[in-house]
Amino acid sequence: MSGQSHESLTNLLARRKPGYALEAPFYTDDAIFEADMDYIFSRHWIYVGVEPDIAEPGDAMVVNIGKASVIITRDDDDQVRAFHNVCRHRGARMIPEGKTMIGNIVCPYHSWTYGLDGDLKFAEHMGEDFDRACRGLKKVAIRSVGGLLFVCLAKNPPDDVEEMARVMEPYLAPHDIRNTRVAFESDLIENGNWKLTLENNRECYHCGPNHPELTIPLFAYGFGYAPGALDEEQLRDAERYAELSRTCHTRWEGEGLPSQEVDHLDDRVTGFRTERLPIDQSGESQTLDTKAACRIPLGALKDKVVGGLSFWTQPNSWHHFMGDHIVTFTVLPIDASHTLVRTKWLVHKDAVEGVDYDLQRLTEVWQATNQQDADLVEISQQGAEDPAFEPGPYSPYTEGLVEKFAAWYIGRMKAALG
Prior knowledge:
Elements lengths: L2 H12 L10 H4 L1 H12 L4 E5 L8 E7 L2 E7 L5 E5 L13 E4 L3 E2 L6 E2 L5 E3 L18 E5 L2 E5 L8 H12 L7 E11 L3 H8 L5 H4 L21 H23 L7 E3 L7 E6 L30 E6 L3 E5 L4 E10 L2 E11 L10 H26 L15 H18 L1
Antiparallel strand pairs: 1-10, 2-3, 2-5, 3-4, 6-7, 7-8, 9-10, 11-17, 12-13, 13-14, 14-15, 15-16, 16-17
């Protein structure tokens, strides 16, 4: 950042008022966006996909994080590895974004060839004194947390990812991510800043009037409500949810299924939160009829009514794990006013489309919800760009997790700026 931009950002961070939305430049300013990419997305653990994306040796996936491009692959020893997608010759990008199968990593420019371990194997016309050993691909830190893949572009990644893994792997293990496959993947470009995407995800204040599909399996009041704000019917529904949460948590924990809330969204460098939430009606899955979308259960789960395990990570993901399928979400910034939201639906690796599950039924709730959220993010971005915009107060009852995201972001930016 330039000196002037640095000073401006420092002032904005210093005067941020807790319990209120961020000021407009945090959503609109190109210099702040670049700072976000430098201080947040280049220094923290970023969720990029699942181990089933690279299920077999030779499978590769390329994910772009801002200007950086990362190759994630599984080598012949079944180890998951990650490298910068930059040839060590003259810097060409070697593999386009997306998934592929490779025997080696070959630069299309001059055919420098790297093994799946990143070592340079072949470089023609370089002379007798050329040392291939010091020209391997630059490594990127990668950590699988129960089958969820996180990368960090920093030379010294935050080591508290190990604490997140210690806490989360018992929650994730019953769903056995490594023995699933990606049934469907969707990329949606939202016309808004990445922080608006995350803020929208971190509350359900907006769910009732905006998500008619999602609020069939999920309780709109599951993340809080103001006393006196509900009519008698809504209050009965909220009380029913609270009682269902208590009884389900007791039963699930008794069956060895971790369920209780763990919240470190704003007190860790690698912020995260998890809780197993009840599903309404039949209680089986996040579908329009609340019943399982796939007839083959995940892992060793025998009880169909295991709710939905929710898992949030700072700065770029959220996930829902049911007994029959998993939905994961990756947020990748494009520029100050555009954001990629990548959604994956996972089913048991042996499940056959049209036999064990119907793809439309599997995906329709979150396909609809994603588009509804994208529309909300777009009007929020339009508002942030309006000269009349000023930060409004968060609801103390329904937007606590939004405040935790904002507090985490402000804290990490201040730490980066010293």
